[in-house]
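Self-study notes.
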Amino acid sequence: MNSLKNAFSRENLLKNLNFFAELNLGLILTAVGIVYFKNPNHFAFGGTSGLSILLADLFPKINVGGFMWIINLALVVLGFIFLGVKGMGWTILDRNWRSGHLELDIVAEERGTVVFVEVKTREKNGMQRPFEALTPVKKERLVRAAQAWIAGHEAWNRSCRFDLACVEYSAGTYQTELIRNVIEYADYGTRHAVGGGNSSWQPW
């Protein structure tokens, strides 16, 4: 109930309304560009719109918009088949959240679990790997920050997880690895670590 009330709070409603307006403005501008520029001039630069223009020329009974619906629907279905719901089920709740001296890089939700994601970026082949930067002291600060976020959103009944996004860069290229469940039960004095990277829990 608390999460539902929070979803319909004035702040979240305004944020969602702003996102909805910007999204639709972008879609309208894209549609205008396709209808009045790309399609009449037979420009197919790539992507779903370019492929749709080509298909509409080959099969004129279906217009560009119809082919875009078909192609995007096919992509969504293929995404569920090859990536699974788990790979597509993340919702970003907060970015760069701060409360006093506490901070969280990313707060997300995956299938009902709140995920606190710490991002560490290091140079490839440097003195320290990204995961080595997550020290016990940093873990304690993360837990305190998570407590503050949960308290602020009245979500003490929600299960949570701490993930680490490791980013390594070299010569303008970046490699990213997501390590799930980087803070285990055992970090807080219990007898055994649990999970294999998939356990949801509350460290408080």
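Second protein, same conventions, sequence then structure:
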Amino acid sequence: MKILITIIFLPFLLINVGNANELTLVWSDEFNYEGTPDSSKWVYEEGFVRNDEIGYFTTRLKNVRVEGGVLVIEAHKETYSNANYTTGSIKTYGKRNFKYGRFEVRAKMPYGVGSHVGIWFDGANIREVGWPACGEIGMTEYVGRLPHTIHLYNHYADPADATKNAYTNVGKFTVMNPYNNFHIYAIEWDEKQIKYFIDNAQVATFNVDIAGTGSNNPYRKKQVFHLTYALGGWGWDVDDSVLPEKLEIDYVRMYEATTAIAPVNLLLLK
């Protein structure tokens, strides 16, 4: 006896629904106003603050202002207080702390030897534990003596000896003429790693456990964000002939991961 078996092929469509890793904009400054930086978001640093730098940070519009849709931090050769140079630095201390997410800045660097730009974070607990125990994320560092190089450095206390500064040179990357055009500098930070991006291309990854395992790791704690245009120090002697010079910031944007519908595969008949 023969048995006839009929097989019916039904076309189907496989659809992926949902996204568990959506990013939501939670904080930003688009600098679409004029005058002083938004005081609900920023505070100034004042004076000689760190690294044996020779640029005196001021609160004056001459050095720090918003105009034409960008934040301008401008360095000058001038006599002011007990300094021969002035410039500026602002941070989110006391306004907003950050922990994990995507952090993005569109910036145009200043030109000339002596400039030292930092787009960076340090620990919100710096007044309690000091530096480097508070941790530092060097989202972008630029020195004018190396005009086509972006540096990425992270600082933290040595896990074996908390009195010592340990650091990781995450990398050096070529960006031609960053003082002529705006570029996007970004990190994506979670409890395991920090990824670095230039113009949306990933260039490096930092393993957070290098700074110690567990919750006491500074990169598992809240951090304060800084925009700094320093003179001297690691930037070396200043070429007075290029001043005044500007660091220009088009925007700062902070995104956090939000819980969304978990991805689900649906098998649908066509």
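Instructor comment on the second fold: Residues 1-19, 260-264, 266-270 have pLDDT under 50 and may be disordered.
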